[in-house]
Amino acid sequence: MKIFIYPTNSLILSDLVERFGHEPLAIMSEIGKRVRSQGLDSPPLNITPEEPKLGLKYAAVEVPSGVRGRMALFDPLISKADAAIIVRDPVTSFGCMGCARTNELVNFLIRAKKIPLLELEYPSSEEDAKEFVFKISEFLKSLKKEEEK
After folding, report:
1. Cα–Cα 20 to 30 A to 101, which of 13, 61, 90, 107?
2. Which NCBIfam families is this protein grouped with (predicted)?
3. Residues of the chain with pLDDT > 70: what percent?
4. Are 117 and 110 in contact (CB under 8 A)?
């Protein structure tokens, strides 16, 4: 299954999802496609004129361009998602997304999609961290069982 992770730049979540045999939907892959592709002269993400229009699907023209730009990157991830893991209030080193309005919009869109969803608080102790990983592993295992049916 394709699992949307949020924060979507979290290497830890991405790694956990892969270890359980699923495909993590992470922004690093979307950015990587643009950085490695040749032929466009719009650094640093090599975007086409069509891509910012994807952001308009989610946010009006009056909304800051950063929100629309982020939503253009999130659009392919959200549309492909079969399930999602959302970590609330992560520390910056875990994968801070940096834009409160985009965070609110992405969380709303994932919940509205009505796909299997695991929401967790960022762990604050070693015991919490163990429980955090355990809950993620159980969620991913349950998705694997659903997929096999």
Report:
1. 13
2. methan_mark_5 (TIGR03271)
3. 86
4. yes
Q: Give me the domain span that covers residue 55.
A: 2-148
How many of the other CB atoms lie within 10 Å of CB of 144?
13
Domain count, the chain: 1
pTM of this structure: 0.84
In the structure encoding, which two tokens stand for residue 41, read together? 């002269």
What is the overall mean pLDDT for the chain? 84
Burial of residue 140 (number of CB atoms within 10 Å: 0-12, 13-18, 19+) = buried
DSSP notation for 73-114: HHHHHHHH-SEEEEEES--HHHH----HHHHHHHHHHHHHHT
The string of pLDDT tens digits covering residues 93-128 is 676 666 777 888 888 999 999 999 999 999 999 999
The pLDDT tens digits of the residues spanning 79-88 come to: 999 999 999 8
Here the tokens at position 39 are: 């032929």
Give, rounded to a whole angstrom, the gap between the first and last alpha carbons of the chain: 13
